[in-house]
Design goal:
This protein is of the alpha/beta class and 212 residues long. The protein is built from 6 helices and 5 strands, in the order βαβαβαβαβαα. It has helices at 14-23, 37-47, 63-71, 90-98, 111-170, 177-208, and strands at residues 5-10, 29-34, 51-55, 81-85, 103-106. The protein has a 5-stranded parallel beta sheet, with helices on both faces.
């Protein structure tokens, strides 16, 4: 069963919240209301919004400042914010978007436009969440690959390293020329084999690292 999307409305006028609830009453949403920007900032973790409808003209903290502060919080940067405004000046509208808001909607709010905008923002949020989950899976896979390659490296190189250490110790003892020749062959081939294994594993590590 799909959990209903969470809509946070930030507006100093509760009547505006009532209007939005009525306009979206046929949609399967959970509504939360904050009567000020500071209250919204204090309770955003509790509300867990999927979309924020933010009034621009509010006392104390206006919508532009609230938007800026929410977008500064890493956990909530991906939550789409729709600024609800009666402003018509282009520079003011540009200032709203410059703080990180994804969209604007004009007052008085049109029902069909509101439904469409919220649906679009929720679709964007779901896509972003899907990408985040995929990236986390890739990171876990990369970590598992690194651990596997580290284990393989140890299992394959440890015996050769032991053989080379024994050969080094034997070289300090009295040996016949033939024994020295055989020992040198063991050391040279052991070094070559160790280098080859290391190169193969390094190449495999590069090939297995996922791209982000």
């Amino acid at each position: 069963m799909t959990t209903p999307a969470s809509i946070l409305v930030i507006d100093d006028d509760p009547n505006n919240f009532d209007v939005i609830q009525v306009l979206l009453n046929k949609e399967d949403y959970i509504f939360h209301y904050a009567s000020s920007g500071q209250r919204a900032l204090d309770r955003v973790d509790r509300f867990q919004p999927d979309v924020i409808l933010l009034d621009v003209m509010m006392p104390d903290l206006d919508g532009i400042e609230v938007c800026r502060r929410i977008k500064a919080l890493p956990r909530w940067q991906s939550v789409p914010i729709v600024m609800v405004t009666a402003l018509t000046d282009k520079k003011e509208l540009e200032r709203c978007l410059s703080t990180g808001a994804e969209d604007l909607i004009a007052k008085p709010v049109n029902r069909l436009e509101l439904i469409a905008r919220v649906a679009l923002m929720l679709r964007i949020k779901r896509q972003y969440d899907g990408l985040q989950i995929a990236q986390q899976k890739l990171e876990l896979a990369a970590q598992a690959q690194d651990e596997l390659l580290a284990m393989i490296t140890d299992e394959m190189t440890a015996p050769i390293t032991d053989v080379l250490e024994i050969a080094r110790l034997l070289a300090t003892t009295e040996l016949t020329p033939i024994q020295h020749e055989h020992l040198q062959t063991v050391r040279v081939n052991g070094e070559k084999l160790l280098t080859a294994i290391t190169n193969i594993l390094d190449s495999s590590r590069c090939d297995l690292v996922p791209y982000y």
